[in-house]
Amino acid sequence: MNAYFRTQLTDYAEYHRDWWNCAMHVFGILFLFLAAVLPLSLCPVSVLGIQATWADLMVIPVLIYWLWLDAALGLAIVAAAAVMLLLAAAIVDLASVGAVWSISVVLIIIGFALQVVGHQVFERRQPALMDNPTHLLLGPMFVMAKFFILLGFRKDLAAVIEARPAPAPPMSPLSAERGQG
Q1: Average confidence (pLDDT) per 10 residues, the chain, 181 residues
Q2: What's the pTM value of the predicted model, to 2 decimals?
Q3: Are the C-beta atoms of residues 29 and 111 closer than 8 Å to each other?
């Protein structure tokens, strides 16, 4: 885990303390990822004689980013992304173009609804990406980190995610008067 990831993960975890919110994020993130790659899976492309889709090409930069943040989590996400890309390809093979777009729209609505409900109902605060848009790409890493921790791996991640911030020291009347904390 690099230092940047540790800092971002610490901040992100503050917005995701409730178990139900985290569970909703698992499904929401999967639905949103599938919704993003489904329409792109409709567009074949040939790169150096290899047949692929725009979905395959568009996920490469973000997969590299996740690998850079943490190699083990990144590799696990690469495997999960491969499964999701195969699922998208299967849906594209079986469904019409209109059905693919309809499925994508439904997945987007459900995925965002899960995120919003998780934050509003269980966390009682706005989503992390409202304060830091880069957190949009951190969600899958957080979910995978929670999965690794659940399986008993990566105590270093558990220390970051499960740590509670120290409460701020009480302000003395003298420091309050001076505007110091």
Answers
A1: 78 75 84 94 89 91 92 93 94 94 95 83 71 77 86 83 59 52 47
A2: 0.77
A3: yes
